[in-house]
Amino acid sequence: MAREGYPFLAVAAVLAALCWWVAQTQPIVAAAAVLFTILAGFMVFFFRDPGRRPPDVAGAVVSAADGRVVAIEPLDGADEYVGDAATRISVFLSVFNVHINRIPLAGEIDVVERRSGRYKVAFAEDASEQNEQSVIGIRQGDTRLVVKQIVGILARRIACYLQPGQQVDLGERFGLIRFGSRVDLIVPNHVEIRVSVGDRVRAGETVMGVIQ
């Protein structure tokens, strides 16, 4: 379980225990006890942190998030960090997906930037530009890519553990977003895309593209 979930689990568990204790003499409180017990179970489910094994594929760029690919689109002009014509791959995470984010490309962290913005639904077409987000630039040799952790209408808290200059490994945990969100991956055109819109992907395992 991700450490960010411990406070939520603790509150739900304490309230559930308290309600069950009171319900021994006040049966009407049993309904609240059941509700808080279910909530505690949901917290364990939502903040689950399963192990992942990165693929043994040369030049692989893996998914940074679990979810469904909702868009693959070329960007107009050069990306400010990638520095070349680039493609954006957007993954939408529902509340039922694992929300741990993982490093898509081994290398060095060049940029970690928090940008304020709106709280539109995460799958909105313009959410990538208008919503609050964390922007991470990763460099491996001549290849640079960007990961965006984007908030949604419910997901308003981004956790990112990275610092500029940090060396990272493929599939390494680097953060999460609560509760339901979107993660964009912006790759240069010399990365061959290996996924399609509608595909289900897993953070740290699914090959999104391969450096050519």
Q: Could you characterize what this model shows?
A:
This protein has 212 residues and is α+β, with helices and mostly antiparallel strands. It has two domains: 3-46; 60-211, Glucose Permease (Domain IIA), CATH 2.70.70. 18% of the residues lie in helices and 39% in strands. It has helices at residues 6-23, 30-46, 127-130, and strands spanning 60-62, 67-78, 85-93, 100-102, 107-115, 133-140, 143-150, 157-160, 167-168, 173-178, 181-188, 191-193, 200-201, 207-211. The strands form three sheets. It has an eight-stranded antiparallel beta sheet with strand order 9-5-6-7-11-3-2-13, with no helix packed on it. Strand 2 (67-78) and strand 3 (85-93) form a beta hairpin. Helix 1 (6-23) runs antiparallel to helix 2 (30-46). The longest helix is centred in the N-terminal third of the chain and has 18 residues, at 6-23. The chain is elongated and about 70 Å long. It starts with 5 loop residues before the first helix and ends with a strand. The mean pLDDT is 88.
